């Protein structure tokens, strides 16, 4: 995966975190700008729902703003932020299970909601056909992810898409590193079976794109 | 060498999170166990496939943080609210009790709740029922009815049996007569009749073949027609898809323009909300 300027900035945000912890509002605002996309994407992949991902992202950053002073170590900011996000994801999941309602966005995820599509900025110069196929493939892979258990899904997303180390995931989920690795192993194994059942392989993807 | 890495070690190896010593050990183990290597390669392929699900683009909303923290008031605290709600409920009950005037009494294992005054409840009067028929008489009546019923059933059964036997005999005699007649007709059939029968069979077959050929020719015609129809449909579909593609590109351009507008608005909003920072940046240039 190629690193963008944003990724590099995120990796070297210790000074910013330090200032934010001391109450610098400007630094806190910059942290939000840096990490918003990551937390949104983590939540989106967890729920496959734009509205819930927005909800969790906003709650996470409000909580970050309130509890920034309680952050013990600056270099643990990343796992600390994901701990907050995971907790809100679990809370939303519990609410969703008790509500048992279907959002209109769930009926055709990624298509019915036009309001946030304008936000797609990276694909400006891409071929529209390729863009369409990429979006369909993303949705398909997302559906496969949704078939995993919640525990396996959160580990797979954190490792595969958020690029956290196993140690950081263990810190964020407050479990042992071996449990994280075990969940990852069985999560990937489960995904392999799901992908095979849907006939999604490296070859079929190459043909599609 | 009986080293066997567990799943945790294998997954750490897959994500390159093992130290050099451990990596060497795992590699040796994988060289000796091709089935484990195959499994690991399968997981690696899943990783590759998963990497095709890209990120959703989203722009962080502008954040306005309130620097002045408001201390929560005493009457806004949860405990105060709980106590007040209990007090309000009790007050409501007292007022309701005053207005309705309920009376609650307990005497002789009986709890009475009444509103506005005590009313006496009259007990229902029990009626003594004297039986009209004795048990022996009832038993006799049942026995008599059973005997009568049994007699009726046995007489009906005998009648039915007789009728069944008679009908069987009649059918047997009829069938044997018919078979005799058929045998007589079959023996009387001449050689000419057989020939005509065979000739008619041949004619029927000829007709069948003709019909079949005509039908297959018709089928081929319809097949070619449908082929042409499908081809024209394909052309139409192709045209439609081209149009959709064109439309997607147009909408993509439209969205990009909108987004550019939105981003510009955000930048402007930032400049407006923080003019000093913007001025500094301009001065730096």
Walkthrough of the structure:
- The complex is a heterodimer of chains A (209) and B (285).
- In chain A, 72% of the residues lie in helices and 0% in strands.
- Residues 109-123 of chain A have low confidence and may be disordered.
- With 209 residues, chain A is mostly helical.
- In chain A, helix 2 crosses helix 3 (25-47) and helix 4 crosses helix 5.
- Chain A has 11 helices and no strands.
- Chain B has 285 residues and is mainly α.
- Helix content of chain B is 73%, strand content 4%.
- Chain B contains 7 helices and 2 strands, in the order ααααββααα.
- Chain B has helices spanning 7-14, 20-32, 34-50, 78-100, 135-188, 191-273, 275-284; strands at residues 102-107, 110-115.
- A two-stranded antiparallel sheet of chain B has the order 1-2.
- In chain B, helix 6 (191-273) packs across helix 7 (275-284).
- Chain B starts with 6 loop residues before the first helix and ends with a helix.
- The model of chain B is unreliable at 67-71 (pLDDT under 50).
- The interface between A and B is large, with 59 and 39 residues.
In DSSP terms, counting alpha (H) and pi (I) runs of 4 or more, how many helices of chain B? Answer: 7
- Rg of chain B, alpha carbons: 51 Å
| Whole-number mean pLDDT of chain B | 84
Q: What's the overall average pLDDT of chain A, rounded? A: 81
Instruction: Bin the strand percentage of chain A.
Output: under 5%
Low-confidence stretches of chain A: 109-123
The SS-based structural class of chain B is mainly alpha
> What gap, in angstroms, lies between the N and C termini of chain A?
18 Å
Quaternary structure type:
heterodimer
Beta content of chain B comes to under 5%
Major β-sheet annotation of chain B: 2 strands, antiparallel
The shape of chain A is: globular
Uncertain stretches of chain B: 67-71
Measured as a percent range, the helix fraction of chain B is: over 70%
How many DSSP-defined strands of chain A? 0
**In DSSP terms, counting alpha (H) and pi (I) runs of 4 or more, how many helices of chain A?**
11
Q: Could you estimate the helical fraction of the residues of chain A in percent?
A: over 70%
For the largest interface, the chains and their residue counts are: A-B, 59 and 39 residues
């Amino acid at each position: 995966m190629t690193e963008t300027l944003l990724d590099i900035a995120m990796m070297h945000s210790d000074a910013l975190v330090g200032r934010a912890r001391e109450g610098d509002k400007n630094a806190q605002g910059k942290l939000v700008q840096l990490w918003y996309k990551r937390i949104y994407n983590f939540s989106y992949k967890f729920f496959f729902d734009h509205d819930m991902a927005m909800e969790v992202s906003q709650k996470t950053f409000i909580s970050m703003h309130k509890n920034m002073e309680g952050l013990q170590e600056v270099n643990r900011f990343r796992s600390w932020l994901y701990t907050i996000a995971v907790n809100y994801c679990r809370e939303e999941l519990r609410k969703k299970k008790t509500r048992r309602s279907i959002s209109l966005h769930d009926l055709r995820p990624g298509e019915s909601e036009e309001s946030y599509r304008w936000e797609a900025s990276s694909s400006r110069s891409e071929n529209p056909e390729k863009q369409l196929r990429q979006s369909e493939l993303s949705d398909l892979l997302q559906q496969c992810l949704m078939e995993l258990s919640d525990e396996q899904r959160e580990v797979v997303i954190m490792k595969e898409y958020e690029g956290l180390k196993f140690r950081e995931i263990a810190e964020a989920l407050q479990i042992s590193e071996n449990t994280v690795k075990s969940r990852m192993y069985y999560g990937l194994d489960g995904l392999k079976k799901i992908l095979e059942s849907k006939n999604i392989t490296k070859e079929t993807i190459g043909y599609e794109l | 060498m009986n080293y066997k890495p567990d799943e945790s070690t294998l997954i750490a190896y897959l994500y390159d999170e093992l130290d050099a010593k451990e990596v060497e050990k795992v590699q040796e183990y994988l060289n000796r166990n091709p089935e484990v290597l195959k499994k690991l390669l399968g997981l690696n392929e899943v990783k590759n496939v998963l990497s095709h699900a890209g990120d959703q683009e989203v722009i962080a909303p502008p954040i306005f943080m309130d620097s002045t923290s408001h201390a929560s008031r005493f009457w806004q605290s949860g405990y105060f609210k709980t106590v007040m709600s209990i007090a309000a409920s009790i007050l409501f009950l007292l007022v309701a009790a005053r207005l309705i005037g309920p009376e609650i009494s307990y005497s002789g294992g009986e709890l009475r709740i009444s509103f506005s005054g005590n009313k006496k409840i009259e007990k229902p009067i029990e009626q003594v029922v004297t039986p009209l028929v004795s048990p022996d008489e009832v038993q006799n009546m049942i026995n008599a009815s059973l005997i009568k019923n049994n007699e009726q059933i046995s007489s009906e059964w005998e009648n039915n049996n007789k009728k069944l036997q008679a009908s069987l005999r009649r059918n047997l005699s009829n069938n044997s007569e018919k078979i005799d007649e058929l045998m007589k007709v079959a023996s009387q059939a001449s050689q000419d009749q057989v020939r005509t029968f065979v000739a008619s069979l041949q004619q029927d077959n000829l007709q069948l073949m003709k019909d079949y050929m005509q039908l297959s020719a018709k089928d081929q015609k319809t097949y070619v027609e449908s082929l042409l129809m499908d081809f024209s449909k394909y052309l139409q579909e192709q045209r439609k898809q081209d149009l959709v593609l064109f439309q997607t590109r147009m909408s993509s351009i439209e969205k990009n323009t909108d987004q550019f507008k939105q981003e510009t608005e955000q930048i402007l909003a930032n400049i407006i909300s923080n003019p000093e920072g913007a001025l500094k940046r301009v001065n730096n240039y």
